[in-house]
Amino acid sequence: MVAERFHFPEKMVTRIVDLRSDTVTKPTEAMRAAMASAEVDDDVLGNDPMAFRLEEEMAKITGKEAALFVPSGTMGNLISVLVHCEIRGSEVILGSNCHIHIYENGGIATIGGVHPRPVKNNDDGTMDIDSIEAAIRDPRGEIVYPTTRLICLENSHANSGGRCLSAEYTDRVGEVAKKHGLKLHIDGARIFNASVALGVPVDRLVRAADSVSVCLSKGLGAPVGSVVVGSKSFIAKARRLRKTLGGGMRQIGILCAAALVALRDNVGNLATDHKNAKLFADGLNQIKGLRVDGPVETNIIFIEIEEGSGTNVGKICKSLEDRGILLMSESISRLRVVLHHQISASDVQYALSCFQHAVKKVQTENGN
Ligand SMILES: Cc1ncc(COP(=O)(O)O)c(C=O)c1O
């Protein structure tokens, strides 16, 4: 995935529809007001009242004993993996296409000395239970093998187009983990999207997990931050590791205040994002030369440029950019669109008309 800087040098672009990610949202007026009036103190010293409130709320929502605010989802995952894999040479079983494995700089290995054991992700973001179990190292081979200590899941699964893992599937992975004395971590960057799409409360979706990392700054729309949740002893260790990694941030109450507004105001908006994503996908599938990959369950859409369509990603993106439509290219034939609460149904219609125009323009230029 390539993040580009956008410039609009030639034309005055009057309307911007930013579909690069659900991380691009700007704080709402209510968030800014809450940030301005937030009561704060030093969180590293353990005194920030807004951090307490947010962490208490997140522990309640996820059904875990305790929670900890961290600067990013990447740090939340790293801390979680490192707490579960304290001994160097531990191994973690994770999806071949998951965020921790692909997009987090290999931090679990370079910083934590944790060995990744990828298992193939299916199109729906799951890994076959049998394949997970087969990947667990036989302790009798410890003279040569790393020691399996953790399994990681991702829900919703971003690289699988935001597909959701069911509570039953997660429970089954949890049973495998328990049977072999392993821990289960969920990268729940978008667990609220999964919860809303499945109609299943967050605490039920993550019941089998020992830890979960939840992003506040994606679908929920808060400006900064994630929260890790787990047992009290897990969070005590996570707190120390957060400091080690430079993630102790003093008056974080300003950020936590915005996150509390996001939890209050934006969870309900996720259903609209999902509805808009489905509308968008239906419209894209009507455009000859484009094909949406898989069913759209939440807020992420992957678009394939069909072979022989006379178009290409670079030219389509340029034409869209000229009209203020921003998105990410995944490869030479694949684009990614992400919906969020600052994209309206009217933005979707406008973006679709721009897609139509872009595809036609490129096809004409290429003599098709
Ligand atoms: C599934 C998933 N996990 C973790 C992260 C990391 O979050 P952050 O960008 O806050 O480090 C992302 C970011 O896009 C993500 O999509």
From TrEMBL:
Enzyme class (EC, first level): lyase
Domain Aromatic amino acid beta-eliminating lyase/threonine aldolase: from-to ranges: 18-305
SUPFAM superfamilies: PLP-dependent transferases
Protein name: low-specificity L-threonine aldolase
Family: Belongs to the threonine aldolase family.
InterPro entries according to UniProt: ArAA_b-elim_lyase/Thr_aldolase, Low_specificity_L-TA-like, PyrdxlP-dep_Trfase, PyrdxlP-dep_Trfase_major, PyrdxlP-dep_Trfase_small
Function: Threonine aldolase involved in threonine degradation to glycine. May play a role in the removal of L-allo-threonine.
Reaction catalysis annotation: L-threonine = acetaldehyde + glycine; L-allo-threonine = acetaldehyde + glycine
Keywords recorded for this protein, A-Z: Lyase, Pyridoxal phosphate
Family matches, as NCBIfam families: GntG_guanitoxin, PRK10534.1
Cofactor requirement: pyridoxal 5'-phosphate
A cellular component term, taken from the record's GO annotations: cytosol
Residues carrying N6-(pyridoxal phosphate)lysine: K218
Native source organism of the sequence: Crotalaria pallida (Smooth rattlebox)
Top-rank lineage group of the source organism: Eukaryota
GO biological process: glycine biosynthetic process; L-threonine catabolic process
Pathway in which the depicted protein is active: Amino-acid degradation; L-threonine degradation via aldolase pathway; acetaldehyde and glycine from L-threonine: step 1/1
Keyword Nucleotide-binding attached: no
EC number: 4.1.2.48
GO terms, molecular function: L-allo-threonine aldolase activity
